[in-house]
Amino acid sequence: MTVLPTFVQCLAAAVVAVVVSGLVVVYRLTLHPLAKFPGPITWRATRLPWVRYTTSGYMWRKLEDLHQRHGPIVRIAPNELSICSPQAWPDIYTSRPILPKEPSSQTPPLNGADSLFTAIGDDHRRIRGSLAAGFSDKALREQSPLLEQWASELIGRLRRELTDTSVVDIHKYFGYAALDTITDLSYGGPLDGLAGRNEHSWMDRFFLHGRFSTFRMSLCWFYPLDKILDFIILSLTRRQRAQNWAVFGGKILGRIAKGDMPDRVDLINSVVGKVADGVEHGSKGKGISRNELLSHSLASVIANSQLTTSALTTCIFYLLQHEQARQCLVDEIRNAFTSDEQITVQSTQPLVYLEAVIHETLRVHHPTPILLPRVVPPEGRVIDGTFIPGNTIVGVNLHVIATSPSFWVESHAFRPERFLPPSDERYDAKFNQDVKAAYMPFSTGPRNCIGGKLFLAEARVTLTKLLWNFDVVLADSNVNEWLDQAAYIVCEPKSLQVELIDRRK
Q: Residue 455 and residue 450: Cα distance in Å, rounded?
């Protein structure tokens, strides 16, 4: 016979729960090892404010405000600190022993095999070692014709669009170009977004994936609610995930089946011979398993295409908002080349103002304005002169440190000149006060972005070809709200309407 709890029993249980919760809050605010670190009371007492701003997509904005009010170290959860300090980069991400990634900050791989993004320890070193050759300087030189080809395909697609209209959503076409480029480099063939006048929705799907991933990562702090909501989220996205694996899994398996292709240098060619199905799950050997390669290839295609699309669109937005910078870059490009065919990855390397524009874009509005959380070992660690207790989650936010007025002159202003050599006549000596050590757009240490150089090469050649072939004019009426972007790992996409004027006519 089932005995239902009485009202008094329920009331007593509720009172106990409230009292225990109250004692936990008091402990966190007074006796906890992080009690001395500043931050709003509610953030120090519970992780709920952290979840609220993370799932809203505006944590990056809130962290900026918190550091302005509370200083370089802010307690943003009972067991987590956000640190805004140039010295924090080496102290957290390169000093040994290397601090591990905080597990809840990662979305578990869907096929159970880690990618480079989720692997830790020996597995991370093994997978990165297997992939490294594809991202070397030598490989990039040999991959350059592919980057140049897809930049030219973008110009061709834009010209086809101009037969109907002079105004285009440049964000969409940057997305097609970025995805065709990375899938060609990863799978041996594009998704044909730029072909003819094709259309697809893969980029929108990828950004939706980022939103769901953020929700999943936030839920892990609330057992057993996390398991229930996780099941619901996975059920809602099952069809989309199955389609992703069917399309991209089939492509990578097809590329592996082709084996070594001496006449083609892509991101996979150097990995094909290292695929061995017995190396995953803690193996200390060499190589990468088929499942790990599948998991990583899908994750890297999503990450590369999203970041490149966001960064290029933001760059164009800022240039069109700052006429002097736009004209300076256009003059540099058009004085350097007499034909489109001269524009290559190599020939764009000497364009110092172009390089400065790209870096200033990443500084002032990074496409992934996220915290990079690590876990302090049990014995604790000194970070920028402050002892941090063991088992604390710590991290540097890419946006906050790159726009902090503590380290940058005109910290939120778009001033590419700050990244020019001091000997350049366009350089302003006031930027000598900038603390360039705060700028780490690709992070640092053994887990830094392996594709940073690839992105810079792709960005240089794409922007150069665009601005050499077209005059670009802002045509977006919502320009004042354009930078107000939610970020779920990556800033969510916003269309940017521009008018293109073909210089051939």
A: 10
Residue 397 lies in a domain: yes
Chain position carrying tokens 């792709």: 458
| pLDDT at 485 (0 to 100) | 93
- Measured distance CA(222)–CA(211) in Å, rounded: 18
How far apart, in Å, are the Cα atoms of 79 and each of 72, 94, 120, 482?
17, 22, 21, 34
pLDDT (mean) for 270-289: 71
- What is the CB neighbour count within 10 angstroms for residue 65? 11
Binding residues for heme: 449
What is the CATH number for 421?
1.10.630.10
Burial of 372 (0-12, 13-18, 19+ CB in 10 A): buried
H/E/C letters for each residue in 279-332?
Answer: CCCCCCCCCECHHHHHHHHHHHHHHHHHHHHHHHHHHHHHHHHCHHHHHHHHHH
Closest CA relative to residue 428, chosen from 302, 497, 325:
325
Residues tagged in the binding site annotation: 449
Let me know: does 233 contact 215? Beta carbons within 8 Å: yes
Q: How far apart are CA 362 and CA 356, in angstroms?
A: 10
Domains: count for the chain: 1
pLDDT tens-digit map of 430-467: 999 999 999 999 999 999 999 999 999 999 999 999 99
* Buried residues in 125-153 as b, exposed as e (16+ CB within 10 A): ebbbebbeebbeeebbeebbebbbebbbb
Confidence of residue 110 (pLDDT cuts 50, 70, 90): low
Residue 294: pLDDT band by 50, 70, 90 thresholds? confident
* H/E run at residue 74: strand 73-77
| Torsion (CA) 176, 191, 454, 306 in degrees, nearest 10 | 50
**How far is it, in rounded angstroms, from Cα 107 to Cα 156?**
37
Residue 48 is assigned to a structural domain of this protein: no
Print the domain residue range for 411. Answer: 79-502
Integer Cα distance of 337 and 119 in angstroms:
44
Q: Distance between CA 43 and CA 333 in Å, rounded?
A: 49
